Amino acid sequence: MTSEPHPISPNDPAPRNSVEMPKPTVAPMVLSLGLILLAAGVVLGLEFLLVGAVVVLFGLGLWIASLLPGRGHFHELLLAPEQRARPIVGVEGLVEQMQPGRAGYRMQLPVKVHPISAGVRGGIFGGLAIPVPALIYGLVSGHGIWYPVNLLAGMVVPSVDKLTVTELERFSPTLLIAGIFIHAAVSVSFGLMYGVLLPTLPEIPKPFAWGGLLMPLLWTAVSFSLMAVVNPALQKGVEWPSFIASQFVFGIVAALVVVQAHRRPPVVAGIMGGIAGGLLMPIPAVLWGLVTRRGIWYPVNLLAGMVERGIGQESLDQLKLFHSDWFVVALVVHAALSLGFGVMYGLALPRLPVIPGPMCWGGMLMPMLWTGVSFGLMGVVNPVLQQRVDWPWFVVSQFVFGLVASIAVIRSETIRVPPAGASPYANVGEP
Fold it and tell me: Looking at the predicted structure, is the pLDDT value of residue 104 above 60?
């Protein structure tokens, strides 16, 4: 055992048989937390900025205080010689050493990687395919093909939020150039990320792969279509990023329950998965309602608006309040969809094919990353314009990019990674 640490005083001599050690401090962690809160405040509001500034100042104070003379170090006394660890004596011949060229010798993973050109190729092909859903949306919605292009330029051009819908539907050379530049830069960047990450990402079990892909797509499509028929005006009030996050929660939780209940009949396992997923699914929507200060009843009332026509004419203040009749409607709709999709999942899962790992990550990782980056960036630069984006169509575009980019990367050549310490040109056997 060591004795209690002695703080260093500028006038105290160092004790004999001691080592000068840095004094533990939480200052870096406090400062990091403050910086994270400051960054979150840019998007989430003034409260996070104020709290982050206070935490940053507190962390800096702790760190500066530890740098003062005699404050940042202490003397740790050494153990007595008889209490110290004995030197380890090596014995040869007990463990066989692995040598390059032998099966099992691998000190560097992954075994094979894609070249940089594969990521560039994936970004280019994905970037060429991603505008297709957006352009289809422009034609179907009546806004025209230039509407999504101009919204894309609004991610970095602040003045776009002052344009009317009619002006956004017109061709603008400046916004076209800005949109092309943003699209090309982001597509190639995410393509390069794909080329690096895909060989290192683990395989995802079939239930979770389909739970992360099938459920969000089906539930979002059904909800979007129902609300488009019943309450088209209310459709704009849906916070689609949080809505889709809820679908991911449902899909993953339902998959986990169905897998655990594999010994039960498929319908029973599906009902159990639907109940569990339906209970946890509202969490992202409720949290989003609290963060945006619209309250926990706002997403509930929007859910009721899928079938209740009168809700579409209500004001925003009414949508923030509790309504018992709307709550009952939302509860019935939520239970029906949860059980319906759960049963469908329990019946379809045994017959669904296995999704390759890269395809699964391409369909889940990229949509979430790109949607989060785009939503956050537009929320900082153009919060008004953020409300005009049809996020379900936007997410569909990200799915298209992710799948096309992953296919392009997978079909590219792979380069063998030599074991650590071996020359790239050495003829070393593979495990």
Answer: no
Which of 354, 373, 390 is the endpoint of a domain?
A: 354
Instruction: Answer yes or no: do 209 and 347 share one domain.
Output: yes
What is the domain count for the chain? 2
3-state helix, strand, coil in the chain (%, to 5): 65, 5, 30
Residue range(s) defining the domain that contains residue 51: 6-77
According to DSSP, residue 310 is labeled G
Rounded to 10 degrees, the C-alpha dihedral 257/262/265/271 comes to: 10
- Residue range 332-340: mean pLDDT, rounded: 89
Residue at which a domain ends, from 325, 354, 383: 354
DSSP secondary structure string for all residues of 328-371? HHHHHHHHHHHHHHHHHHHHHGGGSPPPPHHHHHHHHHHHHHHH
Strand partners, 6: 75
**Confidence check: pLDDT of 429 > 60:** no
418: in domain:
no
DSSP β-ladder status, 6-7 and 112-113: unpaired
pLDDT tens profile 185-234: 888 888 888 888 887 777 777 777 777 776 777 777 777 777 777 777 66
